[in-house]
Design brief:
By secondary structure, the protein is α+β, with helices and mostly antiparallel strands. It is 33% helix and 10% strand. The protein has nine helices and eight strands. It starts with a strand and ends with a strand.
């Protein structure tokens, strides 16, 4: 679930990458366009499964993504989603730099204790929460308050009766575990606990990998160069309304 690279070249100043055009728009725009600003079961499960596959592939190749959020997940013309924007990605097992988007940053990164792939699974927990609840779990009025909530694991989960929502809460709680050793995706079983949780009970992972699952939505594309699905989003308006969002606030990374 990563974009295809067709060509690369470089000159004295820049590296140039020719990537496939993903025409469906990003997931943040798709989310805020919905009347209740949340995804239903079929969208939440499918999109999250695609993200899990992308992260698992990157981690198997020794790459940390480090900036997972709905704006960086783009819908392809076939309805599948792919991760984009690898500006913070790094080939390493462990790093001590600070980077990402403030509401999605993990506690170990804030505390400067060094981080590995757990930062991506922490961000995944935030993204799933955002899909289900329509806002971010640790977003507060200031950066210091947000970071304080993240470090303390100040997470409020609403109990649900529907099995898929109960499963989503279990997955969220295990991804947003401040103890990295106990966070799903970080143990000796790798991504298996995530794939095997009830939230994904309707996902056939082999069929997903082979692009055989029918996506819940197919974007409308009116030509090979159509980019009409990408829209300008009023971030300030969203902040003042129902959805809590800080996606334009990034942290500087010193490599």
């Amino acid at each position: 679930m990563l974009p295809k690279l067709f060509l690369s070249s470089q000159d004295a100043d820049c590296l140039y990458l020719v990537l496939e055009l993903l025409q469906g728009g990003d997931l943040f725009s798709a989310l805020v366009d919905r009347p209740d600003q949340v995804f239903d079961e079929v969208h939440s499960v499918f999109y999250t499964a695609c993200i899990v596959e992308a992260l698992a592939y990157m981690h198997c190749n020794g790459i940390l993504y480090r900036d997972l959020k709905p704006e960086n997940v783009v819908i392809a013309a076939n309805g599948y989603v792919k991760l984009v924007d690898f500006g913070f990605a790094k080939r390493c097992k462990r790093s001590f730099t600070m980077c990402g988007t403030q509401d999605y940053i993990s506690p170990e990164m804030i505390l400067g204790r060094g981080h590995g792939k757990g930062v991506d699974y922490w961000a995944l927990g935030n993204v799933i929460f955002e899909f289900i609840y329509g806002y971010l779990p640790f977003s507060r009025n200031s950066v210091s308050d947000t970071f304080g909530a993240i470090v303390s694991g100040d997470l409020e989960i609403t109990p649900y009766d529907e099995p898929w929502l109960t499963g989503s809460n279990v997955l969220i709680e295990n991804l947003l575990n401040t103890n990295v050793a106990k966070r799903w995706g970080c143990g000796h079983m790798g991504v298996a606990p995530i794939r095997n949780c009830h939230f994904f009970s309707k996902i056939d992972w082999s069929e997903l990998a082979e692009i055989k699952i029918q996506p819940p939505s197919i974007p409308k594309c009116y030509g090979p160069d159509d980019v009409s699905n990408f829209k300008d989003v009023d971030i300030e308006g969203i902040k003042a309304g129902v959805k809590s969002y800080s996606g334009d606030q990034k942290c500087f990374e010193n490599f």
